[in-house]
Automatic annotation (TrEMBL), chain A:
SUPFAM superfamilies linked: CheW-like
Species lineage: Bacteria, Pseudomonadati, Pseudomonadota, Betaproteobacteria, Nitrosomonadales
Entry-linked Pfam families: CheW
PANTHER family associated with the record: CHEMOTAXIS PROTEIN CHEW (PTHR22617:SF45), CHEMOTAXIS SENSOR HISTIDINE KINASE-RELATED (PTHR22617)
GO cellular component: cytosol
Protein name, entry field: Chemotaxis protein CheW
Predominant place of localization: cytoplasm
CDD domains, alphabetized: CheW (cd00732)
PROSITE patterns: CHEW
Keywords: Cytoplasm
Superkingdom of the source species: Bacteria
SMART domains in the cross-refs: CheW
InterPro entries listed in its UniProt record: CheW (IPR039315), CheW-like_dom_sf (IPR036061), CheW-lke_dom (IPR002545)
Length: 166, 547
């Protein structure tokens, strides 16, 4: 058991070797996602609500002619207060050819993490299912919760995609 | 176009007495399936023969009165014309043709062609001298453009579809920006800023024209596909000894070019099927007291967020028993109590055929499986309706990935929705006395003597409306699939042409919504799926008789 956890941690750490992560905050937690999935960062614009969708799906916006759904991670993870003003930030992600907007409290910086800086995620301790975590990144006194954003956004839990892509 | 300059410039098409020219068409390496398809298509223009080069490539020799451009146009469905090498059957090609012929013993089949080809090689000067003035006399217009070399070819260009999409998106943005400017200047004093306002008015018109022009690039009328069928049906009916009247409807319905190209093969198959299996022999039709001439209808129409293309015949219909028997023989999971619709779907199973005899037209059990697969790949569905003795209708429903829609925008609470105008009959404010409550079944509205079910949009979409009382709001009378209903909204906003954007490309399907569009202010508005709304309303007020 402990052996398998360790090998898993090693392979995961190997995957993220020298990767760059975009750090953002939700409430008091700091998260990191693979920078290559980020298409752009925008201010929050009024969305068109979608009937009978879950709370955290705010609606859809027009991104230069493309209709893009916007999810509010603060509502989804029950972190921080969902307020919408000129400081609210939307991270536009491009995942498997699909474009999704993600509302967060703020975006801080881009950091490079070496494999040694990524520790395996504990079983508990965050609102995320640990399936969606790559690990915890340590950077001086900061700790980034590294999220496997591909997996999270395409999960049935988010309900963004009709079915799991075959 | 990579058609060698020399080919058109040497301008010595060897025309025979009927004005036919011989073309030698050298294909790049393509799958055999495409070669067959091309051969069949080009065969419609004239007489064609086929041979293979040493490196597996195929060369057609085509004798046709058509111009080289028509050949290029046909080939462009299957391959990039840049890879094509088309030469007139003139001296130089004649020699080139003769050479492989000598090496290839199998070429004997085309012996007559060869002699034909060699002849001009021998009598080059005579042939060109004789043919050129003849061609000029017959068709001076064509001759003139031939001299220009590239004159005719520049009449169309091939552009990647991504470039067109990008253009469409950019124009969309421009329209939105223009709408913003218009909004800003509407507060200005019209006397002081007269010239600015005039200019903006002109900008508005120009932008609208530009948008229309750009939109039309991708759209093509279904006629493009339909026009190839009359001849096919006639030939096929003649071959099978049947009498068929072929009718097309809705040929002007516009469909995205990408879809048009992909719909050709499945449709061809369905039409062949209808002629071969659907419509009976004249004697049999007489015996069942039907008109000897069978009727085959091909129609296209916009319906909801879809384009529905129907192939329907008035033939014998599908045989439920035969399909079930065959399915049991093949070990498919079936039962005798299956609903008709499920039974019909069995004919899409791979290798399924009830035909006793395999003809060269059909019966191998491959086609319908491929049809279904192709349509599904386009995101569409295939439905079959069949009545024994009265005929079969196969309906292909394709999503509108990109289509322009005349829409009516309506407001409910804070939200603006678009109703496709085709469904809207009228809109009015009912008198309070005309709204009747039906116990536990919702409300109905009396409009000109008819009681129509009331669909409160705010209830379906859980919106906070301004009015819940139909007598204060507006009801829009909608009709879809032969059913009418009254949709309760707060207000009508306007009427406009909208570009349908797919919601599913980045999101999932939403019940009651067929797509989205971008409004003049840059916001997104959802397009209502009227037939789904009407269906759901019927389910809400489900009459026990129908269930």
């Amino acid at each position: 058991m402990s052996y398998s956890t360790q090998t898993q941690a090693q392979t995961e750490a190997g995957e993220v070797a020298g990767k760059e992560f975009l750090a953002f905050t939700l409430g008091r937690e700091e998260y990191g996602i693979d920078i290559l999935r980020v298409q752009e960062i925008r201010g929050y614009e009024p969305v068109t609500r979608i009937a009978n969708a879950p709370d955290f799906i705010k609606g859809v916006v027009n991104l230069r002619g493309i209709i893009v759904p916007v999810v509010d991670m603060r509502i989804k993870l029950n972190l921080g207060t969902p307020t919408y003003d000129q400081f609210t930030v939307v991270i536009i992600l491009s995942i498997g050819g699909r474009v999704v907007g993600m509302v967060v409290d703020s975006v801080s910086d881009v950091t490079t993490l070496s494999p040694e800086q990524v520790k395996p995620a504990p079983e508990m301790g965050t609102t995320f299912d640990s399936d969606y975590l790559i690990g915890l990144g340590t950077l001086n006194d900061r700790m980034l919760i590294l999220v496997d954003i591909d997996k999270l956004m395409s999960s049935s839990e988010m309900g963004l995609i009709e079915k799991m892509a075959a | 176009m990579a058609v060698p300059e020399s080919a058109s410039a040497d301008a010595a098409p060897v025309a025979d007495a009927d004005g036919n020219c011989r073309f030698r068409i050298e294909l790049p390496e393509v799958p055999q399936r495409d070669v067959d398809a091309l051969a069949a298509e080009l065969g419609l223009l004239g007489t064609i023969s086929q041979e293979s080069l040493a490196d597996q490539r195929v060369v057609f020799t085509l004798t046709t009165p058509e111009s080289q451009d028509s050949i290029v146009a046909i080939c462009s469905f299957v391959l990039d014309p840049d890879d094509l090498k088309i030469t007139h059957g003139s001296a130089q090609t004649g020699a080139a043709e003769a050479k492989p012929a000598a090496e290839d013993p199998g070429y004997g089949l085309f012996e007559p062609e060869k002699t034909d080809a060699v002849q001009p090689a021998v009598a080059t000067a005579a042939a060109t001298a004789a043919a050129a003035p003849a061609a000029e006399a017959r068709n001076p217009g064509r001759r003139a453009t031939d001299k220009e070399g590239t004159g005719q070819e520049s009449s169309s260009i091939r552009v990647g579809i991504e470039k067109v999409d990008q253009l469409i998106n950019l124009v969309g943005e421009l329209v939105i920006t223009q709408a913003m400017i218009e909004q800003r200047i509407s507060v200005l004093d019209p006397i002081q800023y007269e010239r600015l306002l005039n200019s903006v008015g002109q900008l508005t018109r120009n932008t609208r024209d530009l948008q229309e022009a750009v939109m039309s690039i991708r759209m093509m009328p279904m006629d493009y596909v339909f026009s190839r069928f009359p001849r096919m049906v006639r030939d096929l009916a003649g071959k099978l000894g049947k009498k068929v009247e072929f009718v097309t409807r809705g040929a002007a319905t516009e469909l995205d070019k990408g879809l048009i190209e992909r719909i050709v093969d499945p449709l061809t198959h369905l039409v062949r099927n209808s002629v071969d299996h659907g419509i009976e022999m004249p004697e049999k039709r007489r015996a069942s007291s039907k008109n000897e001439t069978g009727k085959l209808t091909l129609s296209a129409a916009h319906q909801g967020g879809n384009i529905v293309i129907e192939v329907s015949d008035d033939g014998g219909g599908l045989s439920r028993e035969r399909i079930l028997d065959k399915a049991k023989q093949q070990g498919l999971p079936v039962s005798d109590t299956m609903p008709d619709a499920d039974v019909w779907q069995l004919i899409f199973a791979p290798g399924f055929s009830t035909a006793e005899v395999v003809t060269d037209v059909s019966g191998r059990g491959v086609g319908m499986d491929v049809v279904k697969r192709n349509i599904t790949a386009m995101g569409g569905t295939v439905d079959i309706r069949s009545v024994p003795g009265a005929g079969t209708t196969i309906a292909i429903s394709l999503p509108l990935t990109l289509a322009i829609l005349d829409g009516m925008s309506v407001r409910v609470g804070e939200e603006v929705y678009i109703l496709p105008l085709g469904y809207v009959i009228e809109s009015l404010q009912p008198a309070a006395a005309d709204v009747k409550e039906i116990a536990g079944q919702g409300q109905v509205v009396k409009i000109r003597g008819d009681y129509l079910p009331l669909i409160p949009l705010y209830q379906i979409f859980a919106i906070e409306p301004n009015f819940t009382d139909p007598a204060q709001g507006i009801v829009v009378i909608l009709e879809a699939d032969g059913k009418k209903a009254a949709l309760l909204v707060d207000a009508l906003v306007g009427q406009q042409q909208v570009v349908v954007k797919n919601l599913e490309s980045n999101f999932r399907k939403v019940a009651g919504i067929s797509g989205a569009t971008i409004l003049g202010d840059g916001g997104v508005s959802l397009i209502l799926d009227v037939s789904a709304l009407l269906r759901s309303s019927r389910q809400l007020n489900a009459d026990p008789v129908f269930s």
